[in-house]
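Example record

The entry below shows one chain as it appears in the dataset: sequence first, then structure tokens.
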Amino acid sequence: LMRILNLLKQFFWLRKSLHKINGFISINMEYFKTPEAFDQYAIKEKNASRSKEYFQLSALLVFKIAEMFDMNVEKQTLLNLVYLSILAPFFDDQFDHNSKNIADLILQIESPNYGKDKNHELAFSSSIYKKLLLGIPNKDKFIALARKMFQIQQESCYQKCIEVSDNELYEICIEKGGVACELYWSTTSEDNNIAYNITYSLGGLLQMLDDLLDVYDDLNEGIKTYANQVSFDHFLKVVSAKYVETKDLLKQVPCEGKSKAEYQDLLGILYSAFFVIIKHYKKIRCEEINKPSRLLQCKREEVIFDMENPKNLLNFIKEYHKRK
């Protein structure tokens, strides 16, 4: 019974936090708008949706970790996350579509005004990036992480390379998620190694989950990830080790009490999700599927995992109980 109550408590916290975050979006919607001159990348329906999703995830991450450090999340931090969330889909598009702007973006990270007169796309990123940097407390730290994120995005292009090893894929996954979450945290005024270690490790786990959910689509597009190249059984072993590593980092947090325990519960819920999703994959058509590539024999609608499905939610709760 206590485990069910704890789970419900986490969902209520999540709902309350999302309500607060979405309220911030509604009140400050002008921050999601961009000048008409940058029509291609203006925050319209499609890109606005993507930016809001980035913002929701990053704000939830910052809120929960800030609680452990007894830290208030300031409005400026939320504005920083808004600007970063506007830029995120833009940067993704540049790498995903082999844009001519990629070489210019790294120069713009170092010098925000670079490329603003070159084309509308670079003018767009320059205008948002300059606004972002104005509110960042530790600009050197942020720029160093942005530079590192750019390098990881370049390395992720190797995921379509035949010769990339499983170990290299794992490193790309952990670095990509870890540095992205560090970048989110660097928008705050809290600058300590413990917080960065926690965000990095959690980010790696989140990226592993994201890759697991995208197994079918990534295989279809010829993108190699650690999640779709190793067996599901092996993947779970590696996830379990990463979970233990992430949980152990909580010992470094000086405070004890409610916020730390709640974070550990959320971490456990995240960990349970891997088992629920892989059980779903392995039992499609009542066949025992252990190799991700075999999922391509199925229809997409059979494979894609719907977390809002009541049956999946029930399995999720059962798994949470078992692993608690």
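Notes for this example: The two ends are 12 Å apart (CA to CA). The CA atoms of residues 22 and 56 lie 8 Å apart.
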